[in-house]
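User: quick one, fold this
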Amino acid sequence: MSTRTREIHLARRPVGRPVPEDFSLVEVELPAPGPGQVLVRNTVLSVDPYMRGRMNDTESYVEPYALGAPMEGGAMGEVVASEDPSLAVGDVVNHMAGWREHALLDAREARRVDASRVPASAYLSVLGMPGLTAYVGLTRIARLAEGEVVHVSGAAGAVGSLVGQMAKLLGASHVTGSAGSAEKVAWLTDELGFDAAYDYRDGDLVGQLGTALDGRRIDVYFDNVGGDHLEAAIEHMADFGRIAACGAIATYDATEPPPGPRNLTRVVQRRLSMTGFIVTDHRDAASEFYRTVGGWLAEGKLVARETHVDGLDRAVEAFLGLGTGGNTGKMLVRL
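Assistant:
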């Protein structure tokens, strides 16, 4: 039997900050699964900052979203019909056909996971792309060593909140972070174990970061924001410091190329290195990641907070909230 369902399409390419009119909620009919296929009823959808770049028709590390077609993103779901022996009805699976209520997939596109010990949503947060991004950025890109000082921007987000905690577990001596409200700053220091944090909305990023460091210099900067956050971090870097460039959310909606940091001479003076990375280039780290981070999670050493929005009708609202600080931890859409 076919399945009547709904999905969100990109209706037009945003100019500047996206607005609801850039998206459309479309009703479609999916055929029954054919040989080697499964039908999945999605239960949790991920919205992530990187999706903004895919809305532009520009060269990048991944293809742009097509206009008039369903967008893609991480999702968790339950198999409701299967024509492949590798997956059975009732299996919980992780896949990339998000932004829709149901997905018709080749069985190889869905990965069965164990949702008996952790919530399925964990595979979209601490045990998913955000967790692996934090782990790879610290261990492979920044090569964090015990006793070093770490700073992370966007520290109350899905990746940043895990970066700070993992840095402490990996032996960092001092961890600081920036966030967008007093409540988020308190969460970082009171619950997540950051040594210091500050509200970037209060301005004077160089001065606030200096206060948080209390005379120290940054060995590892994990950059999720770019712009003036990157400039402030460069000002406080130690000699031979390393910058793991994960994202630049401050620039994603820019209609003109933003100015670069004005203090790049510090890169030479302090012999800094800055490395951009995409987590999908590091799939070979997955087994080490699951073993290490899964252990921390089982021992209660990691806090993985989620912000939930309910219903596909509100998925666009959830995505837009990423650009205005509407999330603490991972932003998820529950269906």
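User: anything notable?
Assistant: The radius of gyration is 20 Å.
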